[in-house]
Amino acid sequence: MSTTQFLFTGFGGQGILFSGKFLAYKGLIEDKQVSWLPSYGPEMRGGTASCSVIISDTPVGSPIVSNPDVLVAMNLPSLDKYEDAVVPGGIIYVDSSLIERKVKRTDVTVHYIPATSLAEENGMPTLANMIIVGKMLSELNEFNDEGINAALGKVISARHADMLEYNLKALKIGSEN
Amino acid sequence: MASKVLMKGNEAIAEAAIVAGCRHYFGYPITPQTEVAAYMAKKMPKIGGCFLQAESEIAAINMVYGVSSTGHRVMTSSSSPGISLKGEGLSYLAGADLPALVVNVQRGGPGLGGIQPSQSDYFQATKGAAHGDFHMLVLAPASVQEMADLTVKGFDLADKYRMTAMILADGTMGQMMEPVSLEYDIAPPPEKPWATTGTNMQREHNIVNSLYLAPEALERENFKRYERYKYIEENEAMYEEYMTDDAEIFVVAFGIAARVAKNAINDARNRGIKAGLIRPITLWPFPKAPFVKAESQAKAVISVELSMGQMIEDVKLALDCKVPVTLCNRSGGMIPSPEQVLKAIVDADNGGAK
Amino acid sequence: MVVFDKPHALSDLPMHYCPGCTHGIVHRLVAEVIDELEIEGKTIGIAPVGCSVMAYDYFNCDMIEAAHGRAPAVATGVKRALPENIVFTYQGDGDLASIGMAETVHSAARNENITVIFINNAIYGMTGGQMAPTTLPGQVTQTSPYGRDVNHCGYPIKVCEMLSTLDGPEYLERVAVNNVKNVKNAKKAIKKAFQNQVEGKGFSLVEVISSCPTNWGLTPQKALEWVDEKMIPYYPLGVYKDRSAKEAEK
Questions:
Q1: Which tens digits make up the pLDDT trace of C6-39?
Q2: Chain-chain contact of B198 with C42 (C-beta, under 8 angstroms)
Q3: Nearest residue on chain A to B173, judged by CA atoms?
Q4: Chains contacting C with at least 3 CB pairs below 8 Å?
Q5: Using the beta-carbon criterion (under 8 Å), do A28 and B179 form an inter-chain contact?
Q6: Domains of chain C by range and CATH?
Q7: What is the mean pLDDT of residues A86-103?
Q8: Which strands, in side-by-side order, build the sheet including B75-78?
Q9: Model pTM?
């Protein structure tokens, strides 16, 4: 498949936009065509947040992902809202520590990751998002240290360089889960 | 590739402006373009430039007028309701033949409207920004790279023709991130002997002015300006064609709508429908050339817009109304889906046979 | 021996102002100051919309015609681009205190290093005598034909007093040009307002109480008397702010 459409969804503050940006940067570093489109406005400030990421071998058309190949749902309202939008045969990543119900669809692959609990247990409560991304990368066979390190270097500013290690650790935890 | 960075469209505009030699920015916060101001606020003091948050959009455009009078490159940015406030200044800039770059990252209207992406300021930008006979150069980017490219181009055109160049983007273009390269060969701006920089007691005083109380004089200025506009219409129209060689269904769309339309055209081609896209890059001057082909080979033409149908009037004019033109649109901050555009293409293909 | 000459900074064009109008006096004072400070070559003036709309023709320095009320914003742009040049605006009461009040207040609050010459004649002259933000209570104009009713359209705005509440501005003074003594004082104030800019001190505004015989319906002589009898009691002359002088006192 030459184009993969990702939709990251959850609450503001869960790092939804950040994890999307990381994935987009990783794509750019690996010479893919990429786009990243956030929801914007009041919902950035504590309500629901979402972001569309497209990674493709060919130029990206519309940057808006309405029918994702891959959905990341980090809260129940997002799963409720976007479950049916996922393409048949698509993949859904569910933060099972925040979403109690199961995915109803039977024509998609679902990964349940207790990301928020794992993040808290490992002393990195804000990095549940990256645990899920770690899982996603390993499932997609895209977990390569080179791309990950380079992309993290791009999305984590020098001022927060201490966060690099935590993010790497979160990605690893996800990939091993 | 290596030099490409991921940037938001708004940030790409700001950085491209700096690369183009703009050292003066004035603006007032408004969603969804505030990143331009934030970027400038951070960058300008470090490079000896001036970022100033104005008390209103009206003040901002008049500060632009002041800087432009001195011959320096200058810009402001806003979103739809703020652009309405700038209207007065846009008219004065035109009347005084001053170059400037103005960015409109559109949101839904009318009134306070919403903050989601829109293209409903097409009429305002291309035909009726404010009172009087005048035009602005209107550039419509469809990618983050074009946000940057057209900003650089906009400064050049503005200086060349002593006009306002407007970047007419939308919330999607402003907020999305894509890889962008910002390497340009920047040509030095033309000499500006008309600028008010002080006479140094070496020359007659320069006057920057749009007042002509004698109607004959004002008419003469307007005629002169429209000769320039005619030249621009003949020489500066820009557009992209996508799969139009054998197309029978022509989709016309700019900005984000063109991106959506491309998806739909690919889907239509997969179904064996000969669909193609005309994407105006300059909205004024509106590109007429690609419509010659459309007129001769189109069964139907579809204008895809994030508005109640504004560009469609120029599409019909460009086609002399010889081909049926339909509208495929969303409004108020909604964006047409590729499926909606595909359906319009399929319908046109079924019903549009001559 | 030359006993009277036109300042170099004033052009030779005949002015369009009405007989008895004091715009001519203030133009001359500004031009004299520009001459005396030897700044004509680096001065850029901003003309308003109102009776002095064509001031751009009367000064020999570079001039810009601004939209109604926007002169301080235009001046801000010019000064930010050319900080070594001298920038002044010349505005009437409608321009500065009504439609352009936001630009006035905010350029003062920012202490923009510009000079503002503010002509207060309590009426809109160019459009033929309508109520201004500075029209006195009870004053008859075309749009207050029964006299300005403060219960209906509010009170006049005292610009110097109002701006003096701001921390920003450097210098605010109200003067008049209705007699020789006042003209001399006005010249001193205008010179100080330009000198402040030369010295980088910041926003300096001189409010000049002026007369409009045509629209007040008075002879030029009576109009000057009316300034003494009606205008100055409501708009007391004097320095409303002089930061440098105050700091020197400390």
A1: 999 999 999 999 999 999 999 999 999 999 999 9
A2: yes
A3: A37
A4: B
A5: yes
A6: 23-249 (3.40.50.970)
A7: 97
A8: B50-53, B24-27, B75-78, B100-106, B164-170, B137-139, B282-284
A9: 0.95
